[in-house]
Write the structure tokens for this entry.
Amino acid sequence: MKQFFSLSSCISRVFVVIIFCTSCTLAQQPKQWVTYAGGEGPGKGKHIVLISGDEEYRSEEALPMLGKILARKYGFKCTVLFAVDPATGYINVETLDNIPGLENLQTADLMVIFTRFRELPDEQMKYIDNYIRQGKPVMGLRTATHAFYYKKNPNNQYAKHSFNSKIKGWEDGFGRRILGETWINHHGKHGSEGTRGLINGILKDEKNPILNGVANIWGPTDVYTVRELPGDSKVLVYGQSTNGLSSDSSVNLNKSIMPVSWIRTYQGENGQTGRVFASTIGASIDFKSEDLRRLFVNAALWCTGMESKIPEKADVGVIGEYNPTMFGYDLFKKGVLPSAYGLK
């Protein structure tokens, strides 16, 4: 009997040790997203969630940079999410079905999304869907026109968000329904033609505050085709294809201009109207353009109802170093934890 109690006691102690060690291991695991605390500024008290996750245009580099500017210079609390390999905890842009931290959207005042062909599980996608149902503001960058693609599970409840959706009321998915356009094709020659921004002079003359201080936009990513925007859309910037990938490349006059940045509204299921800003230029390398960064900061203020707070020339100086990787497949930095993008 003594031996039985002794053995039972040992087993209990081992079990307690295992539980304790497991708890310690979980506690030591780094958080799979980053949050920049908001300081003083017009955005104080408001929360922006920036969602990265594309294979080609380095959204995992672009959005932390934008988040830092919005937090440090404009007061927003900014949470940046990443596509993460669940087996390693490293950022892996080729992981199409895992973006941890989407529950942060429950307290978000603005969603900035820059994803491509994601097929997220229900327990993650429900937060994006709920956010949209509430008619809350959205900023969509570059590949957000084709943010989702339910290729494996076309009958999933969230497949309506797929870029090629045929569901009534959600034709062409999130891109068309919310942003105003889905993925069509490359208008510029991908990899050899860039984008020169052509500011809409009519809106500029009307003093549209999103265009405050915006004059010179250029980026090496090509112009996307935009078929037709909804009737309430206002094009802020058109894109001209350039004959080359340098800022001094001449404009290709043989190609028509296309909308590259516009605003519109959509209505949530609760009847609330949400403001939308969309831009098909916005790869990490494009963010080297000061006026493009200024356009995005102005848009964030407009989306959150603070157009009166948009400066004549917003300070968009980079926080720390910013050395973006050139766009392209399989060029993302390997072995990087989300915590690497924390404020130093």
Summary: Helices lie at 2-28, 59-74, 122-133, 173-179, 201-205, 290-303. Strands lie at 33-36, 47-53, 77-81, 110-115, 138-141, 195-199, 218-219, 234-241, 258-267, 273-279.
